[in-house]
Each structure stands twice: as C-alpha cells, then as structure tokens.
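Support reply, case 0932

Customer input (verbatim):
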Amino acid sequence: MITVGQKSLMVNGFSFFLFGFYTVYSSLFLALGKGTAGFILGACRQGICFVPVIMLLPALWGMNGILYAQPIADIISAIVTTFMALHLHKELTEARICSDK
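Our regenerated output:
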C-alpha cells in the first residue's frame, strides 16, 4: 500500500501545477459573466475529462490506468482551458479595439 501511495503522489505531482491555471480561468470566466464557460472549466477536471478517463484507462493499463487517470484528466483540462483562454483573449482584444474607435 505504501508503494502504491508513493507512486500515486509522484504521478499526481507532475500535473498538480496545472490546477491553478484552469482554476484561475474558470473564475475569470465566471467573473466576466460567462457562466457556461466557467462551469465547463470548473467541471472539466473532476467530471467531463476525469470520468471517461477513469473508465477507460484501467481496462487498458490496469492499476497504472487508475494512477495516471487524474494527471491525464488534468492535462486534457489544461488543453481545453488553453483553447478557451485564447478565444477569450481574442474576444477581449476585439472588444477593446471596437471601443477605441
């Protein structure tokens, strides 16, 4: 049990730094009144991305599939956040340009 716990902590540590990235953007979307986008990002890590991954990986990799499910869901969530953030930044830039005219 200690060996599995050590491996689990090590594996989850690799993707933990991403947590702040999508948490900040989820809060930003909510603060800007974009509730749907904020909800999607908020639910992405533990629901939208994690559930399919945790159901699929153990069948493919066994115990390692369980251990790597959360980091893989974190990476997928970060990718989704990146695309949504780029779209938001483009939208904000266009709104600023229009307001300057």
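We compared this against your earlier run and they match. Two observations from our side: The chain has a mean pLDDT of 90. The two ends are 64 Å apart (CA to CA). Please reopen the case if you see a mismatch on your end.
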